[in-house]
Amino acid sequence: MPRPINAVQYQRHAIQLISSVLNTRANASPFTLILDDLNQRAIPFLQQLVIRALSRNINVVIVSFESTRFQPAVRNVSAWGNRTAATILADIEQALSDRKESLVIIDSMYDAVATKNIDTSTLFNLVVMKYTSNLVGVYHTDVLPEPSASGADAYAPQPLELLKFMATSIITCRSLSHVLAAKAARERSLAEPTFGMQSGAEGIVQCLHANDQRGIVLEAEFRRKSGRPESETYFLRPGRDSDFHQPVGPQQLYGTLKQEFVILLEQHPAFANKDAVGMVVAADDEMETSFNLGLTDKQKAAREGVVLPYFDAQKQEGGEGGRILYDMGEEDDFDEEEDEI
With contact defined as beta carbons under 8 Å apart, do 38 and 196 qualify? Predict the structure, then answer.
């Protein structure tokens, strides 16, 4: 697709990229990796994926390591407990075998890869290659990987790095309140605040205003077939009943989408408003110092009356521009013999 030439085309192109992922379009993103943490969970984004997929009669399969509540039409593959990798893969294949188009969601990719030792290549080939379906995996970035007991895997890539390498789209979830606070700090040339475990405070894993109810911020990276990545930041508000058409027939739980309501973050009123600077409560309006940086009128007049070095010499014409002017005082001792030398 040619590059946009104006702002309207740019916005339309950016919305189309994220809309293709949300609506599970074919070949839009075979493997989507979602990164979240306790400050902003990926649940609002996953809910939109499930609702829009069910509205288009797409088979939704959730491989659950953590989830316990599902939509009635969703097929659940339980992966917790003593289930082995071979059993989980067999159940996934059985859930995909009788449908033409499917969406597979794994709610904890770390547990799938590190705990159950599910081979990512085998999982990708099963879902994407064999059944031409879309794979979505959630990775919790605040879960620290366990150190290897043996030194055999010391040089092996970490699970997150391997998943990022394989993913065709990477979406990082952010809290809207935290994004606005970071923007306000940048506008005041202050250090951006840190949240959750990144703050380094003992005992803090989730900060105030986490999981903002107004919506979720999505930092998306789309990887094209040519290898050129495209990065955009979006805002996804909670869906409403008015955003969807009425279901057609008793078997359809959700109607199709009327109009896309995901927008670019720069289009959000709170982000575009310059008053967002006031959200930073950690910084005062003035710099706190032990001395006064200002000057009184008397001090300004004295400063203007100071004659700079070589100021008179610069007024001379010809070759005397570098002549030094010096007036001897009473305390100066003039040595005639040294002057003659």
Answer: yes
